[in-house]
From TrEMBL:
Residues 323-342 are annotated as: Disordered. Signal peptide: none annotated. The gene is pyrH. The lineage of its organism: Archaea, Methanobacteriati, Methanobacteriota, Stenosarchaea group, Halobacteria. GO terms for cellular component: cytoplasm. It comes from Natrarchaeobaculum sulfurireducens. This is Uridylate kinase.
């Protein structure tokens, strides 16, 4: 098919805001599209948020894909007024140019995934993925867990009689050590230490910097920190990089019959997680507080195996992963990326 050139300048475009009906064309959800204030174009918030037919078309047209794209709108009717009705706008079947935009993604990296054994190799790989995503135009908040080292310290201190809050505090210290490792690997000049609260981390993101956090308070894990940061900065996507391939019906390391969920609603995620143990150093793909925050915020979330950091990059860029999609409530009614993922 012939792909028409995008209009360079269209009188009256962009309108003040895009109506929900306009966005319904081609199955885009309103929050998948934001206006570019500077030209006759519309920015897709992120690759993963684009409806699948659109993504497929862009792939077919041979564009280099990035985590975010600037796409032009073809205005079929020649009208580009604010009152343009649904059906008059068709998203061009081609990205006109890659564009650095601000998809906000929070990546929560389990300590056992970031530092599976002493040494910096895996940390360097994760840092490279974060840097690549930033180069693509993403604003990245990384939250780092404590992994095996935290569990060793917690185990030793438990034997010595420390209480659960003291153990959590110990765990937090280790998450921050791991966060410092990631910072060292990032070679960022602007962040020198892990952010200790969400405002500090949010400020880094607002400045266009990467933010790196470890734990913040006892009685939770960094999973909850990731969810809270994602909610605080209004992230487009939250990714949990864990040592398991997703959320299972039971612990896959304990139960051979455990099956992986390709997709869950946030409420279903809460139900699965509610059955798991919760004490200092406990293992879960996502902790209960995190699941509740995801539920209340409607955050688009992916739980995946992060032992190969490239999987994180693929999931953010293309929505392509073998993990578990946590689907915002109600998304099934619209042909969004989430609903069409299969
Ligand atoms: N239902 C479940 N689905 C997936 N993993 C589970 C489940 N129940 C318990 N687990 C355990 O959760 C852990 C998640 O991976 P882990 O890497 O420890 O978490 P984190 O990424 O937070 O460090 C695994 O050790 C796994 O055995
Ligand atoms: O905000 C936080 C983050 C972590 N922790 C403690 O630190 C441990 C290790 O963190 P996490 O479980 O997130 O590390 P992971 O196992 O995911 O690598 C947790 O089990 C908690 O005991 C905490 O109390 N509050």
């Amino acid at each position: 098919m012939t792909i028409p050139a995008p209009p360079n300048r269209v009188e009256g475009w962009p309108p003040a805001r895009l109506e929900a009906d306009d966005c319904a064309v081609n199955g885009a959800s309103p929050d998948a599209i934001r206006l570019n204030s500077s030209g006759g174009s519309v920015r897709a918030v992120g690759w993963a948020t684009l409806p699948k037919p659109f993504r497929t078309q862009l792939e077919r047209d041979g564009e280099t894909l990035a985590c975010s794209l600037e796409v032009a709108l073809e205005i079929e009717s020649g009208s580009c007024s604010h009152a343009t009705a649904a059906g008059q706008l068709t998203i061009l079947k081609r990205a006109t140019r890659l564009h650095r935009i601000s998809m906000k993604v929070v990546v929560s990296i389990g300590g056992s995934v970031l530092v599976p054994e002493p040494g910096g190799d895996r940390v360097a790989e994760h840092a490279a993925v974060v840097e690549d995503l930033v180069a693509d135009g993403c604003r990245v908040g990384a939250v780092v867990g404590g992994g095996g080292v935290a569990r060793e310290y917690i185990g030793a201190a438990r034997e010595l009689g420390a209480n659960e809050i003291e153990l959590d505090q110990l765990g937090i210290d280790v998450t921050r050590l791991n966060a410092r490792l990631l910072i060292a690997a990032l070679g960022e000049e602007t962040i020198t230490a892990p952010a200790e609260d969400y405002e500090e981390a949010g400020e880094s993101l607002r400045q266009g910097d990467v933010s790196v956090m470890g734990g913040v308070a006892p009685a939770q894990t960094t999973d909850a920190v990731g969810a809270a940061l994602a909610e605080y900065v209004d992230a487009d996507l939250l990714v949990y990089a864990t040592s398991v391939p997703g959320v299972f019906s039971a612990d896959p390391n304990e139960d051979d019959d455990a099956t992986k969920y390709a997709e869950l609603t946030a409420t279903e995620l809460v139900d699965v997680i509610a059955g798991l143990e919760m004490n200092a150093g406990a293992s879960a793909p996502v902790d209960l507080l995190a699941a509740k925050i995801i539920e209340r915020s409607g955050m688009r979330t992916i739980v995946l195996d992060g032992t190969d950091p490239e999987r994180i990059a693929r999931a953010v860029r293309y929505g392509d992963h073998d993990g578990t999609d946590v689907v915002p409530e109600g998304a099934g009614e619209e042909p969004t990326y989430w609903a069409q993922n299969d």
